[in-house]
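re: ur question from earlier - yeah i can do the single chain one, its not a big deal. heres the input i used so u can compare w yours
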Amino acid sequence: MPVCLPIPATWPDRVWRLSKALLLGVVVTASTAAQADNDTVLRFDTPVQIDGDARFDRDSPLQPSASSFRVREANTLSSDSGQRWALVTLENSDSGKRILQNNYLVAEFANGERRHATGLEGAFAPGEQQRKMVFFGYHRFPILRIFTAQ
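and the output i got, formated as tokens:
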């Protein structure tokens, strides 16, 4: 005669615990992935008003090259991973067409270091204004100001 083994009444409870554990693992993995994506999300920085012409004690000699471009407006953005960007409105104040170059725009950081923009391009008609997203690399300190030679 065949022997029948009783099925423990706790079997569904074990399956339920296993399902909860798997579900919890999926949720933790998904939230970790979402957290990693947040490190690269850009957020507008709080504007800082700096009065006067005081210089840093270790002023950087980096200056923008002479150009006919003028910064009309600049708003800085950053990510938790240290990316530093700016949304800049530039104006060609000359009477001729001009080509934008990286060395025409400089960012000054909160520690006094300065950097040229990267990946900057575009042509401007006389008197034309354009808005550009400008990348200044990765930096520990936020951008204090952005300027041209004008």
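The two ends are 101 Å apart (CA to CA). not sure if urs matches, ping me
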